[in-house]
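Consider the tokenized backbone below.
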């Protein structure tokens, strides 16, 4: 049939049915018309639940609560009809449901004129099934301006006296991932005490009232699965009969975590004293009976069964000595479990949803040859820090049960918890989960969201990707997603500012999470240590980080306090508290560092920094008290803890004793690059790093008191081309014990004088003079023969991976991601077409190249390559790339780590995997670095070429220097 004839036929059919084939206005609430909601009585409870929730959403927007009816004959005017494709009501009204036939969780929206004599217009919200219907209802709610987070984050809709929607006939696409949900975990410090003491005291626990709120949120986010809370602080989900009932009412699939087979909560339900060891070798019948009773109890529920066996709580299986010995036992266990499903749920066990979660030591068992029935979903996991450990190979992708991913946005365990603030990088989450999707992990996605709050945005992003993955194919899609998320809550006018603020918040946390700022670890728990941020070089890394966070906090405070701030409580929960909390914990530790380091130099200002550290800690306490007791009228009392597990990082700062000693000197100076400990006498002469015209940067000099006195000091440069603040006053008062001045060069005065120039600055007061030697290297563009690009600065060349100057690409190529790495411009070795070992024929291999220029005669240059610490796609690959300089033979590098190794721990704490490579001597001039693709999924962030042996350590990003 000709395409124009087909279009005409479709239009004719739509008109015949009375459905509008174009967008039409549907009045919900006007001065003349008030909508009525109708659903069919006697079907699943979710019809009634969603109909009444829709009525409440309309009331939230307009103030009017529509009538909700079950008799279509009693309705008149404009009507919203809610139901599934199987509804007799929709059949009676001749509503077309053909587009929904045999679809999973799909919905259609149709506006029908005069379906009955008394109804003017009907908006039909039709689901292919109950959840599809719910998603359609909440689609309409969002179009009205009601956020999925209206209750859990206090996002109030804009009030409208007149509410009219533009509706076009629409059928949703099926979800990208079949089962999508969350795992409530480590709930001990937030959700459980809040539910038990504040929201549901009648239960004294996370019970049906709390779960009803959670399940509503899941449906509003178009999710369908829960792994319930399971810590010792919470009774098992099935302990309260109302929990299972409310899950059935909301049509939520109930599963159980990686450590809890057959819907059992081992921590709360397995009693070793009365039941013996949780050991299938020595105590098989007790364990079998334990599983059998739960399968019988849950046989009529919407359930997804976790198969296999581990220890009682997130530990290895008892009764075996190693992974090889575990294989036959685990295969027998799975066979016995499937027998229970056949007996109580469905004679055809392949029709019962089952998942085998390959977490921690289970991966070793699986890789040792474990056979898992083909219909069981393989659930891959991340390493608890956002990096997926393994995905399906080509053969595994053909499994009937498919595969999925269990992913963390919150974690308790080695090497350190992150249970307080939500700082999982949206960019990393998008990259890893879309990689999983491309590798056909599309059956089940579960996100560990800890206490739910404050993981709101991570949860939204994760579930949005699971629902429609096609909206997240590019890293650039994240910017638009976050922009829309902000606009929906605080309006288009503030959305760009808040979005940019949150992006910087996540970027700073990528460098080091707030919970990791103590440089401590857990299991075993260690004391906090001094950070790796450099206080004496790179412009003072510590001060720069504190300043970046303070700027964020000031912006957040300004927005929060702005006149007419929309959704102020929501802003506090979703932006202000996490941003301010991250800023304050950074201040606590970095100011503590300064108190220690400056104390070693006998600076009086050390006491001031100690006080700033204490004040930062107290401010965290104050903000958390507000969150719990005053925010939203006390609604969230007990939800927020500033010290989950009471780890050392959360405690009051352990400040050094200020060992100030009487000194013959009343003052001192400390130029950038000087690390000395001088409790008594400072050197008389210091030397600043060479200041190059090509870098054109300034260096700081701290002038500080060592005694309680008042001094007026002067700085006298020997040359007119040396510029700085050349005088000031020091007193033993806060803010006046130290002053930082910056030395720079007036290059205009040296314009006609190429070469190296020497000068000095004399700092003088109280009969004492300190001298700082200054060198200015006036390299001109003539010397570089017109070169433009990356160039050496301070004996090193910093290169961001995305700054390549040439490339040779095939299907095995590098892609750019603007959300990853310290540089936020990383390169990813494309993985979509790489299902076989990659050929390393260097003459034809895909690569990118970087031109750079050196000024130093380097006899032993060293290249540091910084990669994002991802894991191989599967066991067929490593984490390899290759590099060469100036046409030398490429060196293949592999940064694959062993699980739980010290290297892995350091990698995930810093989001860095570093490899150092030595190269032959480099003469001054132009050079070229090449980066070759070897293994898929490798993410390269940046390079640092060290040309001199006296390289000063840096933790943060060293900027590129370009001409």
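A designed sequence for it:
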């Amino acid at each position: 049939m000709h395409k124009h004839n087909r279009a005409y036929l479709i239009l004719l059919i739509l008109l015949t049915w009375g459905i509008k084939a174009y967008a039409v206005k549907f009045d919900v609430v006007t001065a003349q018309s008030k909508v009525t909601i109708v659903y069919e009585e006697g079907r699943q409870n979710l019809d009634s639940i969603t109909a009444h929730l829709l009525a409440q959403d309309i009331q939230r927007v307009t103030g009017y609560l529509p009538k909700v009816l079950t008799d279509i004959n009693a309705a008149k005017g404009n009507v919203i009809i809610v139901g599934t494709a199987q509804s007799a009501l929709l059949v009676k009204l001749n509503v077309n449901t053909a587009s929904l036939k045999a679809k999973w969780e799909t919905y259609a929206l149709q506006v029908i004129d005069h379906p009955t004599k008394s109804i003017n217009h009907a908006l039909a919200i039709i689901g292919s099934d109950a959840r599809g219907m719910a998603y359609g209802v909440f689609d309409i709610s969002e179009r009205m301006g009601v956020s999925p987070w209206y209750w859990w984050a206090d996002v109030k809709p804009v009030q409208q006296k007149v509410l009219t929607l533009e509706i076009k006939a629409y059928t949703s696409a099926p979800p990208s991932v079949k089962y999508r949900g969350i795992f409530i975990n480590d709930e001990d410090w937030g959700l459980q005490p809040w539910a038990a003491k504040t929201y549901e005291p009648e239960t004294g626990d996370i019970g049906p009232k709390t779960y009803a709120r959670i399940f509503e949120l899941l449906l509003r986010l178009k999710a369908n699965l829960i792994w319930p809370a399971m810590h010792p602080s919470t009774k098992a989900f099935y302990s309260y009969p109302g929990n299972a009932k409310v899950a059935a009412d909301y049509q939520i699939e109930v599963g159980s975590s990686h450590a809890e087979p057959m819907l059992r909560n081992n921590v709360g339900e397995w009693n070793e004293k009365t039941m013996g060891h949780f050991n299938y070798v020595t105590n098989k019948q007790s364990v079998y009976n334990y599983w059998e009773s739960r399968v019988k109890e849950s046989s009529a529920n919407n359930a997804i069964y976790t198969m296999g066996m581990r220890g009682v709580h997130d530990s290895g299986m008892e009764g075996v000595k190693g992974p090889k010995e575990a294989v036959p036992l685990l295969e027998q266990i799975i066979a016995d479990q499937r027998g229970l499903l056949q007996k109580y749920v469905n004679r055809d066990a392949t029709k019962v949803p089952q998942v085998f979660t390959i977490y921690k030591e289970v991966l070793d068992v699986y890789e040792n040859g474990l056979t898992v029935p083909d219909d069981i979903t393989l659930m891959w996991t991340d390493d608890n820090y956002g990096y997926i450990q393994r995905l399906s190979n080509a053969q595994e992708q053909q499994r009937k049960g498919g595969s999925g991913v269990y992913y963390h946005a919150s974690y308790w365990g080695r090497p350190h918890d992150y249970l307080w603030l939500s700082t999982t990088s949206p960019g990393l989450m998008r990259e890893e989960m879309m990689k999983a999707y491309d590798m056909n992990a599309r059956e089940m996605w579960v996100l560990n969201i800890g206490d739910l709050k404050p993981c709101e945005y991570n949860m939204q992003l994760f579930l949005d990707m699971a629902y429609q993955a096609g909206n997240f194919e590019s890293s650039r899609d994240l910017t638009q997603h976050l922009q829309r998320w902000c606009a929906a809550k605080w309006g288009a006018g503030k959305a760009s500012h808040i979005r940019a603020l949150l992006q910087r918040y996540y970027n700073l946390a990528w460098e080091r999470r707030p919970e990791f700022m103590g440089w401590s670890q857990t299991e075993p728990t260690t004391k906090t240590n001094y950070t790796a941020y450099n206080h004496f070089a790179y412009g003072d890394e510590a001060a720069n980080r504190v300043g970046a966070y303070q700027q964020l906090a000031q912006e957040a405070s300004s927005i929060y306090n702005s006149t007419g701030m929309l959704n102020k409580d929501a802003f506090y929960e979703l932006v202000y508290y996490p941003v301010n909390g991250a800023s304050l914990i950074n201040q606590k530790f970095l100011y503590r560092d300064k108190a220690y380091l400056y104390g070693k130099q006998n600076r009086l200002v050390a006491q001031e920094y100690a006080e700033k550290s204490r004040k930062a800690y107290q401010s965290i306490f104050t903000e958390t008290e507000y969150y719990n007791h005053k925010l939203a009228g006390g609604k969230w009392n007990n939800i927020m803890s500033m010290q989950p597990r009471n780890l050392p990082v959360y405690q009051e700062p352990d400040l050094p004793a200020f060992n100030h000693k009487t000194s013959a000197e009343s003052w001192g100076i400390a130029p950038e690059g000087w690390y000395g400990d001088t409790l008594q006498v400072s050197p008389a002469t210091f030397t600043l790093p060479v200041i190059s015209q090509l870098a054109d940067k300034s260096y700081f000099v701290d002038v500080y008191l060592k005694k309680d006195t008042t001094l007026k000091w002067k700085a006298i440069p020997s040359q007119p081309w040396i510029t700085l603040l050349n005088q000031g006053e020091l007193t033993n008062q806060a803010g006046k014990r130290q002053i930082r001045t910056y030395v720079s060069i007036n290059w205009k005065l040296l314009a006609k004088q190429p070469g190296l120039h020497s000068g000095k600055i004399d700092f003088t007061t109280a009969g004492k003079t300190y001298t700082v030697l200054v060198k200015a290297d006036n390299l001109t563009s003539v010397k570089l023969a017109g070169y433009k690009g990356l160039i050496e600065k301070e004996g090193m060349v910093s290169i961001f991976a995305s700054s390549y100057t040439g490339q040779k690409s095939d299907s095995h190529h590098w892609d750019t991601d603007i959300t990853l790495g310290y540089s936020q411009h990383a390169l990813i070795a494309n993985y979509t077409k790489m299902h076989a070992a990659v050929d390393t024929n260097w003459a034809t291999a895909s690569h990118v190249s970087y031109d750079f220029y050196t000024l130093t005669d380097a006899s032993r240059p060293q290249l540091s390559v910084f990669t994002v610490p991802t894991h191989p796609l599967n066991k067929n690959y490593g984490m390899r790339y290759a590099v060469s300089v100036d046409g030398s033979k490429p060196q293949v590098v592999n940064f694959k780590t062993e699980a739980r190794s010290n290297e892995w721990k350091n990698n995930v704490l810093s989001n860095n995997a570093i490899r150092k490579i030595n190269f032959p001597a480099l003469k001054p001039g132009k050079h070229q670095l090449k980066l070759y693709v070897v293994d898929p999924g490798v993410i390269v962030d940046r390079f640092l070429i060290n040309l001199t042996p006296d390289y000063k350590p840096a933790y943060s990003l060293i900027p590129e220097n370009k001409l």
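The chain has five domains: 17-171, 182-271+284-309+342-357+378-472, 509-650, 667-778, 790-946.
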